[in-house]
Amino acid sequence: MAMQRLKQRGYRPIPVNPAFEEVLGERCYKQISDVKDPIDTVTMYVGAARSTPLIREIVGAKPRRIIFNPGAENPQLAEEAEKHGIEVVEGCTLVMLGTGMF
After folding, report:
1. Considering the domain boundaries, does residue 102 fall inside one?
2. What are phi and psi of 43, to 5 degrees?
3. Which residues lie across from 22 on neighbouring strands?
4. What is the predicted pLDDT for the residue at 26?
5. Contact 44, 65 (CB under 8 A)
6. What would the pLDDT profile of 6-40 be if each residue is shown by its tens digit?
7. 43 and 32 in contact (C-beta within 8 Å)?
8. At residue 87, what are phi and psi to the nearest 5 degrees?
9. Is the dihedral of CA 37, 98, 66, 51 positive or negative?
10. pTM of the entire structure?
11. Which of 5, 64, 68, 85, CA to CA, is 20 to 30 A from 78?
């Protein structure tokens, strides 16, 4: 749903999930390091157990910010991101889009 709403509002979401080849007509990358375009925002939908092993890769992508959707919070990733000047937001992407706060 978030990808659909992002596309409707003119954003170009880039899905990253090793389980899919494509999501809503967009190529789905196996890992974030496969994305060659600059990444503005990483929107997290997986919990700390899945995201902790990816900390180096996520921070290495140098996004401007990381949004931790409810249930995806990861204090270790947040701390590492902030050390590297990456904005950390705990919030719901859908709510942020709906209220103009995205």
Report:
1. no
2. -105, 110
3. 27
4. 93
5. no
6. 999 999 999 999 999 999 999 999 999 999 999 99
7. no
8. -65, 140
9. negative
10. 0.94
11. 5
Q: How many domains does the chain have?
A: 1
- Kindly report the CATH number assigned to the domain that includes residue 25: 3.40.50.720
φ, ψ (nearest 5 deg) of residue 34: -75, -20
For the chain, give the DSSP string.
-HHHHHHHTT-----B-TT-SEETTEEPBSSGGG--S--SEEEE-S-HHHHGGGHHHHHHT--SEEEE-TT---HHHHHHHHHTT-EEEES-HHHHHHTT--
Q: Which residues pair with 68 in a beta bridge?
A: 44, 90
Tokens of 13: 């979401």
Looking at this protein, which amino acid is placed at residue 54?
Answer: L
**Lookup: tokens for 74:** 């990861």
Q: Which residues are bridge partners to 67 per DSSP? A: 43, 89
The pLDDT value recorded for residue 10 is 93
